[in-house]
Design goal:
Helices cover 45% and strands 7% of the residues. The protein has 254 residues and is α/β, with parallel strands linked by helices. It has a domain of 143 residues: Leucine-rich repeat, LRR (right-handed beta-alpha superhelix). It is found in: Nucleus.
Amino acid sequence: MDMKKRIHLELRNRTPSDVKELVLDNCRSNEGKIEGLTDEFEELEFLSTINVGLTTVAHLPKLNKLKKLELSDNRISGGLEVLAEKCPNLTHLNLSGNKIKDLSTIEPLKELGTLKSLDLFNCEVTNLNEYRDNVFKLLPQLTYLDGYDKDDKEAPDSDAEVYAEGLDDDEDDEDDVDEEEYDDDTAPGDEEEEEGEEDDEENEEEEEEELSGEEEEDDDLNDREVDDEDDEEEERGQKRKRELDEEGEEDEDD
């Protein structure tokens, strides 16, 4: 797929001014030039053109907000002076795997005052004597060269830094929640046991309610039976009284 078509697909019905990141890796460039990329991409901050057969960056448009530029695994051998004009705020530049042979090729990068990180892995220039010391002298604004600073300390991954900050914030939030909702002495797994105990208690309460309901029904039945017996006894007493009254009346008639 050629670069113009790839850019069209990457837009996904967006306008160029809406795009902040653009990845064109492994597409085909025409005659080693950047095509289809215009200064309408005014908000672009990250551009990746890995392994697209570039031989020059001369056709790069004006991208004032571009901070990270990936140009690795191409065939660039010079012409880097345009970067200071086209991408004045560049902080990260990856030129690893290109045909850069000497320090004079990268010397124009000293005009990029904001350049913080430069990668030249697998370029012939890395075989020069005192390569690292000379590059840091040539480009004093650099903090990291090929992933390490002047003291050979590895550069922290920018994404990892952001992620770590996010984790710190999440941990603080979790600590607040733990202090509010949980007891400090509660061990992992206790929560599930407590939930199980609560369920058992609820079941016991339901069983007690059912039993109490049955007992109430039995009491009601017993009360009704006692009432029926009392009524029958009262009727028998009244009947007996009527019989006695009738016998008394007969005696009086005699």
